[in-house]
Each structure stands twice: as structure tokens, then as C-alpha cells.
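Practice problem: predict the structure.
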Amino acid sequence: MDEIKPMRILIVSQYFWPEDFKVNDVAFDFVKRGHEVTILTGKPNYPKGKFYEGYGFFSKRKEMVKGVKIIRCPIIPRGKGGAISLILNYLSFIFFAHFTSLFRINKGYDIVFSHLTSPLTSALPAIWIKQRFKIPLVIWVLDLWPESVAATTNIRNKQVYSMLHKVVRYIYNKSDKVLVSSRSFFASVEAKINDSSKIGYFPNWAEDTFTSDEHVTYKVPELPKGFNVMFAGNIGDAQDFESIAATAEALQGEDINFVVVGDGRKYDWLQNEINIRKLGNIHLLGRHPLKSMPLFFEKADTMLVTLKDEPIFRLTVPAKVQAYMASGKIILGMINGEANRMINESKSGYAVAAGDYSSLAEKIMALMKTSERERIEMQYNALAYYKNNFEKRNLLDRLEAQFWHFTRSNNALR
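Answer:
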């Protein structure tokens, strides 16, 4: 896009490299496009809950990685992910990012961009920077608050949710553009924003790892013999491993295995369930580097995506759906809403309702019995749907054009 001039872009995100988030792609790709990119972020500690090797509360305050200038503020690690630890983690980023921005962020940026997985409150420092320097703010909402808080925590205090609702309204209305990762997010955002024309759709894409032809060398553990259903990613409360375990129990005695690649707060619970219920068809392979995932996917017969039956999760499309599609894999979903629709609409596999483990078991049996030709067609459909809807270059072209629109408009007003 030759008409796009270089911009000075400031990104505010609680998470950044070496943590694995889509904001990494935005920052590194925009540098390749000739833009000057700075990111204000915390010290990496996700998902393990402790600082990555080489990082500490006060150490590594700044870095330069792949042309991106990284300004890191202190943060309290998330620990084991308990409520108190997460609250301290979230609040510490707001506090330290604000003071870091006062002393280490200078004027001259054309636009500020905020990448918003949980917590959405991490956009607050971006708003204060926007107001201080009078530059446009674009936020990318990948999680809905306070809905996701209600779905994933035991907090039931109405005053807490009232306060969170007000904070989220403030964030949306102080932003110049609110991009949402799922079309199903529109209704929630519209209910909290004064000008709905500010909302735009900007979905996730798969990491380069899943689309690159680059050969990766990594020793992948041998998978068990039989038909292998693979789940890759976070083993958490939201992923409904209770229903996955129930599906595995229903299929005991069949030549079917559930292969789980990943880690998370429910890992120990799942290991305990396997032992108690003698679920010999669930195999835990642990956490492995992102770059190795295509090698794991290649060995699986089908990939599994699940979320609990909660209102918020009907609106959510887990990023693994794009990774599965980009890899040309057949997908099985036990999930509601937009993700369910995407899997069935693309004809890349089968999706059943969240928590419906008996129907999932039936679909697994049906898939195991399909012909090679039918499976190849599903794989082709998955890849074609990805290229038509989620190809990274096209999406970042759109984001770049959006940034340029706001910077041009802002400069005209100066």
C-alpha cells in the first residue's frame, strides 16, 4: 500500500513477547512495513505466573527486539492465577504503566493502540497517554468485560460488576475506534458505547508458525495408536475439561484417544480425574513451544476446541480455531455461538453444543468412520475458509489503513 506513510505507533499491552499474543505480530509486522513501533508493557510472566528467565521486578526495563522498542514497567506476577493474585497483577500494570509513561514516554507518536485480552483495564494507561498527547486511540477487544469476569470467577458482588461496567464504558467511550475480535461482541459493546459507529470487526489470525513453509526440528512424543483427537492450548476452567473427560469416559473401549498438549490451572485436576476415573484414553503431553505445534497437529486425526456453556463464551471465538483452520485440520467443537457456526459453516468438521459430550462422542465415532476422500475435503474446506476470512496480511493491511485514517485526520486538526 504505497500511499501509506510511516507512522510512529505506540502500543500499550500488558502482554508482549516472549509471551505469545497476537500483539506480537502487529508490532513486528508494522516494523517490517517501515513504521516506528514502541510498546509499553509489563515483565513477561504469562502463563506460568512467574517472571521469565532473565526478567525481574526491576531488571530489563527496556529492550529492542526485531526493531520494536520495548519499554517494560514493573508488575506483580500473576502467580497461580487465584483471584487475589490476578487482581494484584492487573492493578500493578495500571499503576506502574501510568508512572512509567509519565517519565519514559515522550510526545511525537501519531497513534496509540491497545491490545485487550483480559484485563480490559489495561487500556487505562493508553487513555491517559491519548489525553496527554492528544493523539487517537484504537483499542482491540479480544475479551468482554464484565461478562468474562462473571463466567470465569466466583465473584458475585453486584457492586464490583457495577464498577467494572462503568470502567468498561469509560474505556470504550474514550477510544476513537473499538475493534472487536468477534462479530458477536457487537451487542455488548453497543450497550456500553455512546457512538456505535466507532465499533469495527477485526478478527484473530493464526500465528506465522501455522502458515510458514519453514522446516522446524523438534522431537514430538509418539502419539498412542488409534484415532487421535487432539486438544492444544490452555487447560483452564473455561475450556470445560469436565465435559472432555465425560466424552473420553463415554468412549472407553473404542480405538480413540484424547491427546492434550498444553498446561494451565486445571492440569492437576485433569491428571487427578484421569487417575480416579481410570481414563486410559486421555494422554497429557504437557506444554511445548509454539513453533512445535504444527508437528503435533500433523500427527493428530482431528483437533478439538471446547468452551463452557456460559453466555460470554457464546460470543467468543478461541484463537485456536484459526490455528486449526490455517493448518488444514479437521475440527471438532463442543462450543456454542460464533465458533460453532464457523466450524459448521466452513464444513471443516463438526460442532455440537457446549457441554453436550454425548453428541461429541457420536461425532467422533462418525468422523472415525468417514472415508479418506471426505476427510481430505474437510481439510481443504478448513484451509480455504481461513484464507478467505482470516489471512494475516489482509487483516494487517486493514489495520494499517485504519491507523493512517486516524493519524491523517488528527494531523489535519492540528
